[in-house]
Write a structure and sequence with these properties.
The complex is a heterodimer of chains A (about 500) and B (about 475). By secondary structure, chain A is α/β, with parallel strands linked by helices. Chain A contains 15 helices and 11 strands. Helices cover about 35% and strands about 10% of the residues of chain A. An 11-stranded mixed β-sheet of chain A has the order 1-3-2-4-6-5-10-11-9-7-8, with helices on both faces. In chain A, strand 10 and strand 11 form a beta hairpin. In chain A, helix 5 runs parallel beside helix 6 and helix 7 packs antiparallel against helix 15. The termini of chain A are close together. The N terminus and C terminus of chain A are likely disordered. Chain B is α+β, with helices and mostly antiparallel strands. Chain B has 3 domains: about 210 residues, no CATH class; about 120 residues; about 60 residues, Orthogonal Bundle (Arc Repressor Mutant, subunit A), CATH 1.10.10. Helices cover about 40% and strands about 20% of the residues of chain B. Chain B is built from 15 helices and 17 strands. Chain B starts with a strand and ends with a helix. The chains are: A alpha/beta (about 500), B alpha+beta (about 475).
Chain lengths: ~500, ~475
Amino acid sequence: MTESNSLNDPMSTLIELTASEAAERVRAGDLDPAELFEAYRSRAVADQLNAFTWVADGPPAPAPGRDAPLGGVPLAVKDLFCTEGVPSQAGSRILEGYRPPYTATVVSKLAAAGAPLLGKTNQDEFAMGSSNENSGFGPVLNPWDRSRVPGGSSGGSAAAVAAGLAPWAIGTDTGGSIRQPAALCGIVGLKPTYGACSRYGMIAFASSLDQAGPLTRNVADAALLLRYMVGHDRRDSTSIAFPGEIELPRSEDLSGIRLGVPEELSGDGIERGVLESFNATLRLAEGLGATIESCRLPHAPHALSAYYVIAPAEASANLARFDGVRYGLRVDADELTEMYSRTRATGFGAEVKRRIMLGTYALSSGYYDAYYGTAQKVRTKISEDFKAAFAKFDFIVTPTSPWTAFELGSKTADPYAMYLNDFCTVPMPLAGIPAISIPSGLSDGLPVGFQLAGPAFSENRLLAAAHALETAIGFGQLPAPDRWGSYETR
Amino acid sequence: MTDYEPVIGLEIHVQLATRTKMFCGCELSFGDPPNAHTCPVCLGLPGALPVLNARAVHHGVMIGLALECEIAERSLFHRKNYFYPDQAKNYQISQYDVPLCRGGRLAGVRIHRVHLEEDAAKLIHVGESGRIHGSSRSVVDFNRGGTPLVEIVTEPDFQSAEQAHEWLSLLRTTLKQLGVSDAKMEEGSLRCDANVSVRPTGATTLGTKTELKNMNSFRFVERGIRAEIERQIALLQAGGEVEQETLHFDPGTDRLTSLRSKEEAHDYRYFPEPDLVPLVVGSEMLEAVRAELPELPAARAARFERELGLSAERAHELAFRSELADYFELVLEANGGTRADAVSVANWIPQLVERIGSDADPAESKVAPGALAALVAMVASKQVGREAAREVLTRLVADGGDPHEIVQEEGLGAISAQDSGVADLVGRAIDAEPAAADKVRAGNEKALGPLVGYVMRESKGRVDGGEVRRMILARLLES
């Protein structure tokens, strides 16, 4: 351990600004965006959490204009997003060193709005995992306790923001991959409505579920970033124009807001400390004027089963293109099939192989109806459950993760225990609805996440409610090192 | 010995003549340098997504309407999974259980379905065999990858190889007339596989079928099917059984070799393509495409019969090859287009085809429609004899030009029967063919042939045959 940096250090002062505050200062002419970029870049380069897989050499040239709405505040981008000429490896050895010839729509849009690329963040291989231990480039460590996981699959993005290595980040969420790591790292993570953000250039895991979203220090930053992420993209047929604009949340009360607490997702299997924080947050919400009622999502307990058929099925086809023919790893052999086998056997990690096998099996002739067909029916039922619940409630609230950050290696031997991480986050992507996780407090010194889910395209209301709660909770928004004094920054 | 009858169905892949590919903006090309027309989408790069080409949908709907299919208001795309280097994604985006068009009919043959899909890339195998096994190296050209295709599947309604050939050529005419495809088998823009089985004549159940591939010309389709029918009948007559398999036709030897059997059949693991939304064809689009439909061969043949008085046979001969019918109508137009002219113009088209080659397009020949129109008019007004006109046509095919000038240059103009030279020729004919002359005098008019032939030969066909006939009769019977 080394001495922490003091608040007097000008670099430290810079990184204490939230992204919105920093953007504001740049636009006001009070802050040089190149200086801001360098403050973060030097921290990212010195990353000891293994959060980054690549860091930019310097600020972009030309620099974003002073009037750029995102003020040149640098952005950490999950490695699942393609970035032109910059390694985009999706956490997989099969894409080691792969530099795509084009940039994902969301990344281009954010760059154009003034959030240049700071670096690419580590992740579970092809976004398959909840602990970041499935990365082909080593696990990411949780800045709250380096013996623990940051969650996953967007663990690099979450850890980078939590540790102040990046002012904000984007990730992707398929079954909880933004919200769960946000919860385990004590930051805000939002999964938007399916179709709100373009998937073009996002390396596909499960196409009908994948969605890009922000990971930020607070709700206001999430809203600001999301504002420039959403929109129809003619390159993504499943993207939809967002109705209206994402507003910056100011609400500080919840009067008239009805919160539904699903029995299925807030009882058995949730760690005690997590439940205590969850219940305390519900009382705060009541204090802000919300009404709290328990409700039912009868099919939610089956969400995990349906998810682990649908997502692997889609993945088995999405990952077929990694075959050694055109790009990425190739392990040569005398014969085509042998080249395929060796390349894929060498390039893919164990979890990815497991899901490809699961998905291939589920789609096989004679099993399709029993597995894929049934899973799709469950998916429809889950959507109907939410629809019924939103007739009575504005939001459904649950703990984001059943537990806080766990020890590295503690769940790797048991895939099913690992899959349970997503128990509370999987139903929402199956229904295509948005959900946000905000930090609700600490349990044994580790952050706990509180999740709010709303109907499709309710992002503005969701952000407003999350902002009101965030204000009441008063969870700190400063990065390392000052709140976690022992954390070494460079 | 049992008699067998064949049962044949066709599966036809048609490359659509759109400007760009099925799911990306790359231009379609033929013969450009390899991989010149590629992008992240058609190369299957990580993160790329397909976007459906609206023009391809338009063409698919048009084909469906022309084949009298039912157009689905909502159809789906699926992923067809298989590993092969000609598929960048290792799955093909195709339609499966909810295709764009179902049912339908063309010239009595029932259409099972018509659906949209993307073409594979082209593999080039370097090495002796020219196939992937045993080649030293294979390279992929993705220019063709992602080209829009429709697959047309017929019911097993053909009973012979000839019938399949004839129908396929009508389908090609129809597709060309719609303007949706070049439909050239030699270039692969029209590809045909055949499902062939045989059964005891009169049986109501179907025999085991085989699938024939690699028949890349109309003649090969016919030869391949015929060879397979013969093979299956011989096999059954020898007490054997037909095995369900895919066969590769070798046009060099007319032999069929097995590609894969049923046991090795792929499990394509079809599932709905999550990157695309369902394809919805609204009534507005349907009506717009319907309004664009050109006159199709069957309707055109009927019109030629009804309005122009052509025989049914001639009407089909022209209408089922649109380039002939188009040329025919151009000649008519140049000629004022009267009904009387139509029949004679139509009768001259086969003469022209005979001279330019049976597969050639008359519009690309040296014979301008106006020139043929003029020639037909000259025959009608007896300015030139029929025989001489055939020679003029031969000259037109070789060198082009104006028939009037050719007639003048070559001295082929008709000689009036009043010309004294013709009377002399008639006299010489009677002297040269005394036996025939005697028979005619005895009342046998059928014996006129050699006498008329003599005059026509000697006059190089410049005299009107009817006039000559009358003159000989008059001379022989006058006293």
